[in-house]
């Protein structure tokens, strides 16, 4: 079964988001992150958590596509 355009976009978005989640996660473990003030550290950590949640939701939606085929 061919994917619908919105399904293709969702898969592309999940792929791009996965890269961003990984990159931000690496940044959070680095020295530059430690040099930021506490508020920026907290906000970036919070952002990372939201990105992971969004990625997880996209993955669940993608899995539903594959079970329909």
Describe, in plain words, how this protein is organized in 3D.
With 69 residues, the protein is an all-alpha fold. It is built from 3 helices and no strands. Helix 1 runs antiparallel to helix 3. The chain starts with a helix and ends with a helix. The relative contact order is 0.16.
List key phrases describing it.
0% strand, 69 residues, mainly alpha
Compact summary:
The protein has 69 residues and is an all-alpha fold. It has helices at 5-28, 31-34, 38-68.
Secondary structure topology:
Blueprint: H1 5-28, H2 31-34, H3 38-68
Q: Which whole number gives the mean pLDDT?
A: 96
Structural class: mainly alpha
Order of helices and strands: HHH
Task: Count every beta strand, where a strand is a DSSP E run of 2 or more residues.
Answer: 0
As residue ranges, the low-confidence spans are none
> Into which percentage range does the β-strand content fall?
under 5%
Instruction: Count every helix, treating DSSP H or I runs of 4 or more residues as helices.
Output: 3
Q: Quick one: biggest sheet? A: none
**Global morphology:** elongated
Q: Give the N-terminus to C-terminus distance in angstroms.
A: 6 Å
The whole-angstrom Rg is 16 Å
Task: Classify the helix fraction into a percent range.
Answer: over 70%
